[in-house]
Amino acid sequence: MSKKIFKDKFRTGTNMVNIGWQSNVEKELGIEGLKQFGYISGYKDAADDLVDKVLGISLADAYVFPIVFLYRQYLELVLKNLYVKIYDKSTKMDHDLSKIWEKVRKKIKDETTKEGRELIDSVIEEFQQVDPRSFHFRYFWRLDYSSTLPDEMSVDLGLLKERIDKVDTILYGSYGG
User: Fold this and answer.
1) Is 27 helix (H, G, I), strand (E, B) or coil?
2) Three-class SS of residue 157?
3) By C-alpha distance, which of 170, 160, 171, 169 is closest to 68?
């Protein structure tokens, strides 16, 4: 077991990925936001790929947890990135999507349509009802060992992906444009 999975320097080779190149490219090109783009788009793209993989197969139920978590994490990161751009880094934020969105929503009113904001409102409201602090799709138990999710529930993965795609169409320019 002499080979390390994680190493604190760049490596090349099959199946090897490197973290940190973004800062070098940002400095050379005089741009910023590549790190944020990687995180934000990475979570969304991974969830999209999983949805595409499991739609129509019987084992899709086992994938619901990572899919919903990845989409929720995408939402949290894109909102926090917007928040920092609008305000600053001095305010601590937690995992509450509705609190972050409430503050961001006011400031992006001129750049978005009423329908777009209402779509984002509805997506965030649904996530807040099911997973208010980003724990329910990551963990199957709470600290007291009670279940994080109800015994019966369904998730329309196709509709979830569709709505997140619409949210991304509205907010993409804040991190990827």
Assistant:
1) helix
2) helix
3) 160
**141, 147 in Cβ contact below 8 A?**
yes
Asked if residues 76 and 138 have their Cβ atoms less than 8 Å apart, the reply is no
Please count the other Cβ atoms lying within 10 Å of the Cβ belonging to residue 9. Answer: 6
Q: In the predicted model, what is the mean pLDDT of residues 167-172?
A: 97
| For residue 177, pLDDT beyond 80 | no
Residues in the chain: 177
Q: How far is CA 6 from the centre of its chain?
A: 23
Tokens at 63, concatenated: 């994938």
Query: Rounded CA gap, 5 and 73, in Å?
Result: 24
24: confidence class by pLDDT, cuts 50, 70, 90: confident
Q: Is the pLDDT of residue 21 over 90?
A: no
User: In this structure, what token pair is assigned to residue 92?
Assistant: 């601590």
